[in-house]
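During the second year of the project, the team shifted from modelling isolated chains to modelling whole assemblies. The rationale, set out in the original proposal, was that interfaces cannot be judged from single-chain predictions alone. As a representative example for this report, we include one of the complexes processed in the last quarter. Its constituent sequences, exactly as entered into the pipeline, are reproduced here:
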Amino acid sequence: MRKIVLLGSPIAHSYSPAIQNAAFNEAGLAWRYQAMEVAPEKLAATIASMRVDGWPGANVTIPFKESVLPLLDEIDASAIETSAVNTIVNKNGHLVGHNTDLRGFIRDLHTHWQAPRAGQSLILGAGGAARAVAFGLAREGLDLSLIARSVSRAERLAEDVRREFGVEVTALPWARESFVRASSQCTLLVNATPLGMMPHIQESPWPDGVPLPPDAFVYDLVYTPADTRLVQQAQQSGIKAVSGAGMLLEQAVLSYELWTGLGAPRERMRAALGGALERSSAWGRTEDRTDRREVLDA
Ligand code: NAP
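Output from the structure prediction step:
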């Protein structure tokens, strides 16, 4: 049995074991995907053990997407751009870091939305996911506004994106006037903050009393619950909106393909994700969602 692990802390929230194990079963691979709770001080030793134990690869999640970079042998372009790794491929002990969040987001976005000729994309947040989204959109030539609680973080991201792609990027503070200003030209609104994520389902990143941009498509990276408050607000205003479940699926598809070299059974993975999302609503909104048999301790 070959093992792929998800390294993170906490990892009890992850749907990835359900999605990847469904794919391995469908392909008839004797592979198993297991979430591994790793304490920060054990990350280096866990990565070192990957080389020895010969795991074909791993996923990396919060809080290790950045701190894992110096522990790897090679970093591909997607991970260099985003300064974050979410997928490791083990080539006979040579560990290569990739980032499938960026392509996963762009792939799913374009199944729902085609970029108009004019207008700006507005990204809320300036963390790891916002960075992937910003690089993905800027590569397509789109101008951006960023609204973030930490303006210095947003300014750093804006500078990196401008330097790489030459598009216009404005960094604004997390203040009501910023939302009013940025929404006037906004054709795509992406929430890349955790606001609205379970168990805080009553929260929305969008301030009360400011109308959502009427012509924008809304993409909420949060996928638990599937209908976040932001998605509901948009739909109630007649604005098209989706949650981040599609991005989660696409990044998983891309990771599977990197590890196995095979085309991924996307529909089987989609069904497994759908089942996991349904179970999570049925179990209640605050419980762990990972099958405990799939959680290892480092
Ligand atoms: P992160 O690196 O921790 O960044 C979070 C960002 O949100 C930071 O800019 C942070 O601001 C901001 N933020 C947090 N709480 C806030 C609040 N109360 N008010 C305003 N801003 C706040 O996290 P991440 O990895 O980017 O993930 C962000 C979200 O995207 C999470 O919900 C994650 O689950 C989701 N995500 C989804 C997918 C998918 O496949 N759908 C993939 C990746 C991430 P500060 O810098 O000031 O802390």
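The first helix runs from residue 16 to 27. The first strand starts at residue 2 and ends at 8.
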